[in-house]
C-alpha cells in the first residue's frame, strides 16, 4: 500500500512538473521581423514580470514581448510578422528563438590574416529547384547566397557540405551568358568568374541558366561552379543582407 502511495505521489509530481513552462527570451535584433501583438499594453515592474505576464495571460500563444525599460510598459506578442513595426517607445523586442520562423539562420563569420567576412545565412538541405529555392529565400526576407569575393566563397564552403551540390544566387536567366547575382542583379566580375568556374564551365548556353556549387561526387571538378538546368533540385543557402539586421 505504501509503495502504491509513493508511486502515485511520484506520478503526481511528474505531472505537475511537466505543466511548467520553460521559455528563454532573447533580445531580437532583426529589423525585418516584428512581433504580432496579443493584447493591450500593461505596466509591470520588470522585464521578468513582462515575460511572466505574457506566459500566464497567453500560455499557448506567447512567444515574445516588447518591453520598455524606462516606462516599464509590457506588450505580449505571438509569432513574427513582417508586416507590422513597433514604435520606438515600445522599447526592445524579446523573442523565444526556439519558436522563431527562421531558426536556421545564424551569423557566420570567417577571418583570415588580412580580411574578414560575415553573413547571416541559413542552410536548407531539402532539395528544391532554383526557382523554388529562390522563392523560399524571398519568403524569409532573404535571397540565395551571393559570393562576390573569394573569402565570401570560402564562407559559403564553410556553411555548406562537400557532400551536397548547392544552389548559389547566380544565373543568366535574363540575358544568356550574363551571370548576375541574386541580391542586386550585378554581373559577376571577370576575376570571380574565372576563379569560380573551371573550364569548360559555364557550358550550358540556353539549356543551363542556374549556377550551383558542385559536390565532391560531381562529374564537374569538386567545389567549383557549374551552370545547370534550373529544374534540377539541390540544397541551397539563403542570406539576409547585413544592412537589414
Ligand atoms: Ca554546365
Automatic annotation (TrEMBL):
Signal peptide limits: 1-18
The entry's keywords: Signal
Boundaries of every C-type lectin domain copy: 123-239
Name listed for the protein in its UniProt record: Uncharacterized protein LOC106078340 isoform X1
Pfam families per the UniProt record, alphabetical: Lectin_C
InterPro entries: C-type_lectin-like, C-type_lectin-like/link_sf, Ca-Dep_Lectins_ImmuneDev, CTDL_fold
Organismal lineage: Eukaryota, Metazoa, Spiralia, Lophotrochozoa, Mollusca
Amino acid at each position: 500500500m505504501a509503495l502504491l502511495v509513493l508511486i502515485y505521489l511520484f506520478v503526481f509530481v511528474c505531472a505537475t512538473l511537466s505543466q511548467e513552462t520553460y521559455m528563454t527570451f532573447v533580445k531580437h535584433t532583426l529589423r525585418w521581423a516584428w512581433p504580432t501583438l496579443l493584447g493591450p499594453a500593461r505596466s509591470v515592474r520588470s522585464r521578468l514580470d513582462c515575460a511572466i505576464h505574457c506566459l500566464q495571460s497567453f500560455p499557448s500563444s506567447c512567444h515574445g514581448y516588447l518591453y520598455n525599460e524606462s516606462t516599464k510598459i509590457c506588450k505580449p506578442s505571438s509569432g513574427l510578422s513582417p508586416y507590422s513595426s513597433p514604435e520606438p517607445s515600445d522599447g526592445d523586442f524579446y523573442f523565444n528563438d526556439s519558436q522563431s520562423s527562421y531558426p536556421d539562420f545564424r551569423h557566420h563569420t570567417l577571418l583570415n590574416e588580412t580580411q574578414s567576412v560575415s553573413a547571416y545565412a541559413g542552410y536548407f538541405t531539402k532539395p528544391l529547384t532554383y526557382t523554388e529555392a529562390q522563392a523560399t529565400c524571398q519568403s524569409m526576407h532573404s535571397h540565395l547566397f551571393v559570393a562576390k569575393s573569394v573569402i565570401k566563397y570560402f564562407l559559403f564552403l564553410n556553411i555548406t557540405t562537400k557532400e551536397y551540390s548547392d544552389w548559389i544566387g547566380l544565373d543568366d536567366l535574363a540575358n544568356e551568358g550574363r551571370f548576375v547575382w541574386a541580391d542586386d542583379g550585378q554581373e559577376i566580375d571577370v576575376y570571380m568568374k574565372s576563379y569560380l568556374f573551371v573550364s569548360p564551365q559555364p557550358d550550358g548556353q540556353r539549356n543551363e541558366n542556374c549556377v550551383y556549387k558542385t559536390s565532391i561526387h560531381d562529374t564537374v571538378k569538386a567545389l567549383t561552379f557549374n551552370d545547370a538546368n534550373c529544374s534540377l533540385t539541390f540544397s541551397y543557402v539563403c542570406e539576409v543582407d547585413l544592412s537589414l539586421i
